[in-house]
Amino acid sequence: MRQRTAIVIGGGIGGLTAALALDRRGWSVTVLERTAGPVPASAPGSRAQSARPARSGAGIGLAPNAQRALDTLGLGDAVRAMAAWQGAGELRLPGGRRLARTDNAAAVRRFGGPVMVAHRAELLALLAGRLPDGALRTGAAAELVDPGEPGPGGRPARVRIAAAADRATGTDGATATDGTRATDGATATGEGAGVPGGADEELTADLVVGADGIHSAVRRAVFPGHPEPRYAGFTAWRFVVPAPDRPCTAHETWGPGGLWGTVPLPDGRIYAYATAAVPPGGRAADDERAELLRRFGTWHRPVPDLIAAADPAAVLRNDVRAAAAPPPAFHRGRVALLGDAVHPMTPNLGQGGCQAIEDAVVLAQLAAPDADLATALAEFTRQRLPRTMDVVRRAERIGRLTTWRSRPACALRAVLMAATARLTPDLALRALDGIADWRPEGPTYAAGTRGTRTAAQPKEHE
Ligand SMILES: Cc1cc2nc3c(=O)[nH]c(=O)nc-3n(C[C@H](O)[C@H](O)[C@H](O)COP(=O)(O)OP(=O)(O)OC[C@H]3O[C@@H](n4cnc5c(N)ncnc54)[C@H](O)[C@@H]3O)c2cc1C
């Protein structure tokens, strides 16, 4: 039987996971990433040799649902080895008062595993390093030309890789929501590398995966009338700083119009994030670290210390956007959409990347080598659309609570949170009920069957 071909547009968390999952399913996969892309890590089992440790950027929380999805690809242990347990976490007020505590033992009891936090660039490097040699093409800005038509008498999908001259404008000029482009070493240096000789290149494939992030041009091409993601009412800052002198406990602190989060990373560094309810499109006149000092500099320690330790150039700022409406489907023709391209969500549940990983694994499980593609893609929409849209709505509801600015309303919110936390100790975890407990088909660590092979894990890839 002819090996089926897949093109993945976008080499973020969703695209790389999809490429790995399809590769393990026997597809011949090419990932087209318009930036210089992640540098593959030479982790044990990696097929790539080079390594460049990431020193800046942001962290990412990986809940048990995402870890179990990665388990089916034989990647769960590697990810857990490079991640830290989120551990004990506290919900606090700007003055320092503790409203509630959570701990990972409760997450293990509730969801079968802990929430882990990894450095994004390291996660991307790990995923990229597990791809077959040559599968990841960086500096390759791609455009969907034709979604194709599956089935007898159908036609392949067509993708154009823009020549270097076109690349200056890119497809939408947007930065990935994970913000890794600016600071992780995967800078825009790769953009403009272009097709050698300066001519466009056209590729055909049996399947195209649109994993090109929140400003997805693939989504726009397959559903032209669908509304763009809408501003969620707040902007987010993220940065990573070296380990502070004194130990630091994970906390999220809610104040009027914004919040602050501090998360220790496995190597001792600290991942910090903050949000504020401000109009979209804003940028600090001086620099974003100065903006953080103005907004959070009087909050409890270690917040001011972490801001002081940040490199102003390494503070990422992104306006947060979420899906304005459910798309008609997650597929059209031979194209499947996944991740932020199809269900952008606010970060309040830490699930955008986790859902992209779930999407990727489910897509590959459905797209078995002998499966009818049209049926597989319809089933992909049937399984993924309602689930991810539910997560979008739930995250947005929490996001709205964090934008309250009135001090009396925030004081009442604090009283209610403290009281609810006393009555329901696992309050923060409840938000992830029905989400973090998700299980893919196939064995996962939580099932105690780690290392068992399934049809989706051919031996040569273990
Ligand atoms: C403040 C904040 C905190 C977050 N925290 C978490 C968290 O803790 N846990 C979690 O799970 N999620 C979190 N998220 C969400 C998460 O970052 C995203 O959901 C996730 O990165 C989406 O992955 P993706 O692969 O779909 O898209 P992206 O990561 O945006 O990747 C898309 C890729 O496509 C490339 N691309 C775009 N256009 C083209 C083109 N034409 N040709 C080729 N390549 C192209 C881009 O360069 C990019 O590399 C957070 C988000 C924010 C904003």
CATH top level label of the domain at 5-62 and 125-227 and 324-393: Alpha Beta
Strand percentage: 15-25%
How many helix segments? 14
General form:
globular
Structural class: alpha/beta
Number of strands: 19
Oligomer: single chain
Q: What name does the CATH topology of the domain at 5-62 and 125-227 and 324-393 carry?
A: FAD/NAD(P)-binding domain
Taking Cα atoms only, what radius of gyration do you get, to the nearest Å? 21 Å
Q: List unreliable stretches of 5+ residues.
A: 48-55, 166-193, 446-462
Determine the mean pLDDT: 85
Named at the architecture level, the CATH assignment of the domain at 5-62 and 125-227 and 324-393 is 3-Layer(bba) Sandwich
Cross-sheet strand order for the largest sheet: 6-5-14-15-16-13-17
The ligands found in this model are: flavin-adenine dinucleotide
Q: Tell me the distance between the termini.
A: 23 Å
The helix content is 25-40%
The CATH homologous superfamily of the domain at 5-62 and 125-227 and 324-393 is termed FAD/NAD(P)-binding domain
Tell me about the biggest sheet? 7 strands, mixed
Task: Describe this entry's structure for a reader.
This protein has a domain at 5-62 and 125-227 and 324-393: FAD/NAD(P)-binding domain (3-Layer(bba) Sandwich), CATH 3.50.50.60. 30% of the residues lie in helices and 21% in strands. The protein is built from 14 helices and 19 strands. The chain has helices at residues 13-24, 64-71, 76-81, 104-111, 120-129, 164-167, 180-183, 217-222, 288-296, 303-309, 352-366, 373-401, 407-423, 427-430; strands at 5-9, 28-33, 59-62, 84-85, 89-92, 98-102, 116-119, 136-138, 142-146, 157-161, 201-205, 207-210, 230-241, 250-255, 258-264, 270-276, 316-322, 331-332, 335-337. The strands form four sheets. Strands 6-5-14-15-16-13-17 form a seven-stranded mixed β-sheet, with helices on both faces. It has a six-stranded mixed β-sheet with strand order 8-2-1-12-19-18. It has a three-stranded antiparallel β-sheet with strand order 3-7-4. A hairpin with a 5-residue loop joins strand 15 and strand 16 (270-276). Helix 1 (13-24) packs parallel to helix 5 (120-129), helix 1 (13-24) runs parallel beside helix 11 (352-366) and helix 9 runs antiparallel to helix 10. It binds flavin-adenine dinucleotide (FAD). Flavin-adenine dinucleotide binds at residues 9-15, 32-35, 60-61, 141-142, 171, 176-178, 211-214, 217, 236, 238, 273, 318, 320, 339-341, 347, 350-354, 356.
